[in-house]
Amino acid sequence: QVQLVESGGDLVQPGGSLRLSCAASGSIFNFNAMGWYRQASGKQREWVASITRRGGTSYVDSVKGRFTISRDNAKNTVYLQMNSLKPEDTAVYYCNAIPNLAWGQGTQVTVSS
């Protein structure tokens, strides 16, 4: 089964930017779509963004205009560019195929001054 490893999380000030990466151990082109999710402390995991095999994108309303999801099929990697970060974006971020595979460890994003 394909394994997914997220990276790029960090502590950043409000208004800052981060780019998260999700490296897959196999071809992501086999999946209909790839997505990013996040889970804040004490809350349920929520969907953030997704990108189809053909490059169509969707976002949760709270990140529209600030986050951009992209994929590099040749590198089997999915990215999440996050700009204008807010404290409410603080969470562990996960990537996954859609339909979901086993979840990875995620990467921590903390937005704080």
Walkthrough of the structure:
The protein is 0% helix and 49% strand. The protein is mainly β and 113 residues long. The strands form two sheets. It has a six-stranded mixed sheet, with no helix packed on it. Strand 7 and strand 8 (77-82) form a beta hairpin. The protein starts with a strand and ends with a strand. The mean pLDDT is 95.
Q: Which features does this protein show?
A:
single chain, 113 residues, mainly beta, 6-stranded mixed beta sheet, 0% helix, 49% strand, globular
**End-to-end gap:** 40 Å
**Spans of at least 5 consecutive residues with low confidence:** none
The major β-sheet equals:
6 strands, mixed
Roughly what fraction of the amino acids lie in strands?
over 45%
Number of helices: 0
Itemize the secondary structure elements and their pairings.
Elements: E1 4-7, E2 11-12, E3 18-24, E4 33-39, E5 46-52, E6 57-59, E7 67-72, E8 77-82, E9 91-98, E10 107-111
Parallel strand pairs: 2-10
Antiparallel strand pairs: 1-3, 3-8, 4-5, 4-9, 5-6, 7-8, 9-10
Provide a short characterization of the protein structure.
The chain is built from no helices and ten strands.
